Amino acid sequence: MSYEWYESIGRPRFAVAPMVDASELAWRLLSRRHGATICYTPMLHSAIFIKDAKYRKENFTTCPEDRPLIVQFCGNNPETLAKAAKMVQKDCDAIDINLGCPQSIAKRGRYGAFLQDDWDLLSKIVSTMTKAVSVPITCKIRILESIERSMDYALMLQSAGCKLLTLHGRSRDQKGPLTGVANWDYIKAVRKTISIPMFANGNIQCLEDVIRCLEYTGVDGVMSAEGNLTNPAIFEGINPVTWDMALEYLQLVEEYPCPTSFVRGHLFKIFHKIFSFNTNNTEREILATAQNIDDFKKVCVILRDKYLPYHLGEIVMCDDENVTRQAFDLILPPWLCQPYVRMSPEAHTEKMETLNKKQNHPEIKRSLEDPRSNSISRKKMKKLARIMRRPIKPDADKQPGRGADICINDVCPNPLGSKCSYRLCKKCCRNKCYEDDLDCRGHGILVHTRRQTAMKFASERT
Question: Does residue 55 sit in the same domain as residue 163?
Fold first, then answer.
């Protein structure tokens, strides 16, 4: 009985993950052309979705070829989530609840992985949504502190009405540079515990990883996010030429438009290995400032013209293939789509410790703190140059403002705010207000006022 719905949509095994600003319609269609058998929409905020027609139009688009499709929502209000689900149920095959996002925005909004400790609320959300719509409700979660706790978590969601569970094999704290390796043992244990269809997520860089994950964990399908972004043909088991994938994607964007920021992000990920070479800085800058499809195509064509002779073997860097690969410091040539390999948490920690030691060295510290030093970032140097070009007002010393005085913090080169109470730039002013419990009306920073309001509210509740 648990598998009837899953059977009806063809038992899909290869899933494109829900990715904010990345799994839009054009990208989903590209992924489907190259092996994906089910796709998720980007995460949609349920409260905004039900109120804002413009948000709905810009963030939820589909077409007949875009099936099977799962729409993902985030939120913490059962009625709001149910209402949002009703608005899309005719255009999808299931509706997913995001219970896995570990980012700070999810913590502030109290959704995603920051609901995993409130099982009563989650049970109510799943059951309310299940009763409200005619399509199945699914959940995407992360592992908890132990295998046993993760198993109980999955069973609770299944009992509440979840019809398909996706388990990311990392905890809520494994994110950013501390992402680390996903634990498939948790996924395997949960798979044995529940009786509904289940997808695994984590450690997927190529089709071989997909097969290994299916065999080891026993799940019904495997979901890919980063692996899919750097190689949209990951489920096809090939490493296509980057410019072919990019141009095919751009053709789909012309048919199914999306914001240029989405397009730019996809192309940067597809070309990430090529852009790791300093010889392609010009192309990188063209992509960074591109404003339309023609600009994006221009980058693809330039890179194609530059690397196609190597790809066709017309130009050989070296007779020995192994030496050629060593010259690129890659297993595959950089013009082929391939996975992005993260630095391990241990290596990142060691790198940061080394960097901190260097920065605390007296000579290097003095260089970093000197606004005139070449160690300052390029962006800050440009800002300083603009400030230096500004004309000095005759009464600048009497009426300090952005065009005249610099922040009184000795190591800060930024111009001070003209109305700042403490003669600081906004960044330094914010730090001072947080440390000393102050307000700055000039910058609109009300740390003291808000803390007092919070304390008053807390005392009234008790």
Answer: yes
Report which of residues 142 and 430 the model is more confident about. Answer: 142
Q: Which residues have a Cβ under 8 Å from the Cβ of 406 and sit 6 or more positions away? A: 387, 412, 413, 414, 415, 416
> What is the rounded distance in angstroms from the CA atom of residue 126 to the CA atom of residue 154?
12
101 as an active site residue: the answer is: yes
433 is written with which tokens? Answer: 């207000």
Q: Which helix (H) or strand (E) holds 141?
A: strand 137-142
pTM of the entire predicted model: 0.76
Shared domain check, 261 and 231 = no
Q: Is residue 225 domain-shared with residue 251, that is, in the same domain?
A: no
Tell me, yes or no, whether 104 and 196 share the same domain.
yes
The residue range of the domain holding 187 is 4-236
pLDDT confidence bin for 377, thresholds 50/70/90: low
Enumerate residues 6+ apart whose C-beta is below 8 A from 54.
none
How does pLDDT run across 118-155, given as a tens digit for each residue? 999 999 999 999 999 999 999 999 999 999 999 999 99
DSSP string covering 297-362: HHHHHHHHHHHHHHHTTSS-S-SSHHHHHHHHTSSS-TTB--PPPPPPHHHHHHHHHHHHHHHTSH
pLDDT score at 326: 44
**Looking at residue 395, what DSSP letter applies?**
T
| Catalytic hit among 74, 92, 101, 420 | 101
- The closest of 15, 31, 29 to 72, measured between CA atoms, is 15
Number of C-alpha atoms within 13 angstroms, CB side, residue 229?
A: 22
Residue-level length of the chain: 462
Q: CA 408 to CA 324: how far, in whole Å? A: 54
End-to-end CA distance of the chain: 49
Alpha-helical segments (H) within 52-202: 53-59, 78-88, 104-109, 119-132, 147-160, 184-193
Round to whole Å and give the CA distance between 158 and 77. 19
Residue 462 has pLDDT above 80, yes or no: no
**Confidence at residue 315, expressed as pLDDT on a 0 to 100 scale:** 81
Peptide bond into 68 cis (omega under 30): yes
- Spatial separation of the C-alpha atoms in residues 94 and 4, rounded to whole Å: 13
End of a domain among 269, 304, 328? 328
